[in-house]
Design brief:
Shape: elongated
Distance between the termini: 34 Å
Strand content: under 5%
Number of strands: 2
Number of helices: 4
Oligomer: single chain
Length: 134
């Protein structure tokens, strides 16, 4: 009699769509998606705001967009290595540095993260998944 009757049941439930299949990596995907959604929001606001600013302030806006672009690259790489391969993560991270293509890459990787989270039964709203439900 080696089994403990009071032990909680062990499940072999693997997470769908994640390379490792761990629930911890699913939580990371949800966190990275929230960061990517923030980067998308900042870039869209900056695109609209550039037409309302003077030339001097547009330079500051451009510097801010460079910082957001680097942050986007990091989060795209981190998310892509969990749902795709490392090589594709590097490629998507490099593409994220190109101004207009970077926004398209952000939207594409956000769509993949949304699909992975929904396939695992997690509701995804406008600002990402609720981390307390994972």
């Amino acid at each position: 009699m080696t089994e403990n009757p009071y032990q909680s049941p062990a499940t072999d439930a693997r997470v769908v769509g994640i390379n490792s299949g761990n629930i911890e990596d699913l939580r990371k995907v949800a966190k990275y998606q929230k960061a990517i959604l923030t980067c998308i929001l900042i870039q869209l606001l900056a695109i609209g705001l550039q037409f309302a600013l003077s030339a001097e302030l547009r330079i500051l806006l451009s510097l801010g967009l460079i910082i957001v672009g680097v942050a986007s690259t990091v989060f795209i790489f981190l998310l892509a290595t969990h749902v795709y391969s490392t090589g594709l993560g590097v490629l998507l991270g490099i593409l994220a540095l190109i101004p207009c293509i970077g926004l398209i890459v952000l939207l594409a990787i956000n769509g993949k993260a949304t699909t992975v989270l929904r396939n695992n039964g997690i509701e995804v709203g406008l600002l990402g998944a609720n981390l307390s439900k994972i």
